[in-house]
Amino acid sequence: MRELPGGTVTFLFTDIEGSTRLLHELGERYAEVLAEHRRVLRDAFGRHGGVEVDTQGDAFFVAFERASGAVAAAQDAQTALAAGPVRVRMGLHTGEPVVTGEGYVGVDVHRAARIMSAGHGGQVLLSETTRRLLDSSAGLRDLGEHRLKDLAAPQHLYQLGDGEFPPLRTLHRTNLPIQPTPLVGRERELEEAGALLRSCRLLTLTGAGGSGKTRLALQLAAEAVDEFPDGVYWVPLQALRDPALVERAIAASLDAEGDLLQHVGDKRLLVLLDNFEQVMEAAATVSALVVGTPNSRVLVTSREPLHLDPERRYPVEPLPEADAATLFAERAQAVDPTFKPTAAVTEICRRLDGLPLAIELAAARVALLDPDELLARLEQRLPLLTSRSRDAPARQQTLRAAIEWSYDLLDPSEQELFRRLAVFRGSFSLEAAETVCGGDLDTVESLVVKSLVRRWGSGRLGLLDTIREYALEHLDQSPEAQDVRQRHAEFFLLVAESANLNSGKLSAGGQRHDLAIAEQDNVRGALSWALSSRSIRLGIQLATAMESFWVTHDPHEGIRWFSALLEAPGQAAVPPDVRAHALRSWGSSADISGDHEAAGRLWEQSLALFDGLGDDQGRAVLLHRLGIIALRRGDLGRARELVEASQEIHERDDDWWGKTWGLAQTTGTLGSIARDTGDEPLARDLTGQSAAMARAAGIPWWEGGALAELAQLLLNAGQVDDAETRARESLVLAEQIRDRAGRVFGVGLLACVAAARGNARRAALLWGAIEDEDAGAPLGGWRRHRAACAERIVKAAGPEFDCGRTEGRELTLDDAVALALQ
Length: 822
Prior knowledge:
It is a single chain. The protein is α/β, with parallel strands linked by helices. It folds into six domains: 9-160, 2-Layer Sandwich (Alpha-Beta Plaits); 187-315, 3-Layer(aba) Sandwich (Rossmann fold); 321-402; 410-478, Arc Repressor Mutant, subunit A (Orthogonal Bundle); 484-676, Serine Threonine Protein Phosphatase 5, Tetratricopeptide repeat; 704-820, no CATH class. Mean pLDDT is 85; it is low at 387-392.
């Protein structure tokens, strides 16, 4: 694609009128006709210097450096299409948009598209700004001022040529308020909610404060204006507190004198009731309007539904990432026309939960703060996000006011639960809300219905970060704050213990990594509180209960927590058994991170404590761990001695789960010793047994590691097909529990398989993605295996390999795993 023109640019949008009807009429010929239409347009655009920006279906978006070139291209295209079955509407508008890596950004793009949408097939419409750049011979017809469906101020429009067309598709018979800026994104919502509005009598848009309900509803009403010949009417309710005044407000907006229902009668009109949440007792008025006026429709915005029989609900979600970033950029450019989006914009929008109000308030700050500075200040969102706009409603001049509006409408029991729920980080279960916060089902449901608590697709609950910050202020100011945090930490200690991730205390049922993954944010919150409140024993127990989570997800994080807790004031009072398990768990994280010397020291300390306690099972685990350290040092005799001593203790264990898990470990390590002594057949046999025992005990991370070891041994033996099977099984397990080291090793093994089969490109892509994966956060286990993998991979070296390796370095680990499992 040619470089997009900058500076003053004229945009041309095109669209086929009645394309669906044309498809049915032409049948199989439609594809041929569509292709000819594209050829004609592209030929006309190219002759006059147009640059194609985007093409979607039967629509074009083209940019021109000169307005005269855009007009000439439109005229040529319409002349060429005149004799055919395709009727194309076109719109032109000139402005000075910002050019980014993603294309053009700015209101001028939206304006050009809206001008096109107002026209009819065969018609070319121009804005006033485009007309000013043309000479008097252009042959334009003045169509006067029109309100476009973007709800902006009236636009003066012109038509190219003097053809006769129906009235423009612009707003009429409506009091919808002028909007200072076009709606950004929301295409899916407009389509879905529009379909609901056509199929029901009463539609309520629900959502949190600042989620954009009103702006979406206004646009939805504007888009539907052609379907309501008797008018579309906006009824603002934000200033009302008395439900008895709602009927009067509706009548005033409709200029109705006397009885409202008689005035509406059988008229086809749409009534938009905006901000209904504080006059919920007036729901009966809405019901009477819906029942008593058969051809009317009612559209409502509210933070909770009206609970009426004919009501359909449509929840307004935050903006997706791309639309949120576009909104920020456009609002920022209104403040600073030279603003250029950076990577920080995406993170800002994520921190603001994609809430349009929050994004607009943040973007207004770019006059003083660049995106990186703004991002640094977003630790406290609410004080930062205020507006100096005098024409914004009071509840939208700060994000705090928008949330406070909802909070003030809650009853005391709802307010109590709302502030307590701030103790949760990320998401939480209904059980957690009930146990930690004393919430009952009805009150939790009420907060969900009122858009203060969200229900995720997984069934879990959560507060948007912006809303949580407000709730947290109320919690911190309440006398119950410490009690709530204590209950939160104790609850998640029980959850973590039930996940069975403490490798020294395996219970029946195997490990539940899914529990730890789901609750990891809450665990981090509980650990932070334990440190700050000097609840060191509870914190150590919680960190220890998460042992296998740290090992598989981020051993460096595990090291940080154990270091902070076991070196904190008050740690000396921790009982020996708690300390022994914690030192062992700390050593596990150190070992996986690659710091084997530190792991050995921690495990020696832990073993000494278990010896003093007379805890044979604790000793067995540590003897095995120290055997691994000896193996890594190359002391195979000492390694075998320690591992066999551990195995002997496990054999005497009466608990099947503990015994099976212990033997899975010792058998696997004996396999590694056999490998290093050159007996690879024995190594394959023992490693396979280890994987089977780990599977039986429900320990997926050990099973996955054993399968990866087995795959490597099978590659050594030239059994490529079997190696691929085991490597895939290993990678699937690692992906299920999000084991970072296991995922890297699995991808590396499948790269080796590809190299062994002569598939240089696949080998290169996979290898490029993971060869330096541990650069930022070292992975000790991968470091041990990388050299062996690299030796196999280089056999596929060549020009194709080098190219694929470079491409592979652009892949994320998630991308690499997906590619490897194809």
